[in-house]
Amino acid sequence: MQKIFVETKQIENEKITIIGEDVKHIANVLRMKIGETIQVGNRQTGENYVAQITQINAENVIASIVQKVEETTESNVQIDLYQGLPKADKMELIIQKTTEIGVCRIIPVEMIRCVVKLEEKEEKKKIDRWQKIALSAAQQSKRDKIPTIENKVTIKQVASQIEEYDCFLVAYEEEQQITLKQALEALNKNQYYKIGILIGPEGGIDGKEIKLLEENGATVVTLGKRILRCETAPITMVSNILYELEN
What we know:
Layout lengths: L2 E4 L4 E2 L2 E4 L2 H9 L7 E6 L5 E9 L4 E9 L7 E8 L3 H14 L3 E6 L9 H21 L7 E2 L3 E2 H7 L5 E5 L8 H6 L7 E7 L7 H9 L3 E3 L11 H13 L2
Parallel strand pairs: 1-4, 7-8, 7-12, 8-9, 8-10, 11-12, 11-13
Antiparallel strand pairs: 2-3, 3-6, 4-5, 5-6
């Protein structure tokens, strides 16, 4: 069943009004007809509904709520991904795949070894594009919530936010002692956790950055014997965290 996200104001009197690009998608791409059902998610609340299409025109699609969906696809583990800025195509892949898996927020990070620089004049345009990718991936995977793509931050800003998390993990290719599994074993399963993870860019994380993060409470871990690409590491890390802690 196709999923569409709407704003709270579009849901009124047991009816949902779908507007914007979703109208063309429903009518011209999916070629849906009156009487067919769709799943609709509320962007603000995460609530979901099954709704039957009652009207299709050029401006909007009207659907009547058939039932509220009680099950949730969201996890008891909130994972925020701090991603050292990679090349554009890699960032898009990271956003798409980690959204599908279950990440909650994605925050681009300017780091010493970043090849790419996100200039201020380009930032809004880039983030708007990345947010659309997250939306599309959330619809495809039937997430209840769309991950937020935040404005870029510096490594110092990341360090200042570590205390907000129950656990903050940094994947580092030179770490040889603490594994991701060992770090997660210190947490109890079946509880709510807010976890931050940081992945470096193509060139990896500089030693000065590791020292700063550790001084502010981060746990540095290895992801195994093999060196992973910057677009593979976050997918691997998020998947393993949810495997260990999700109920």
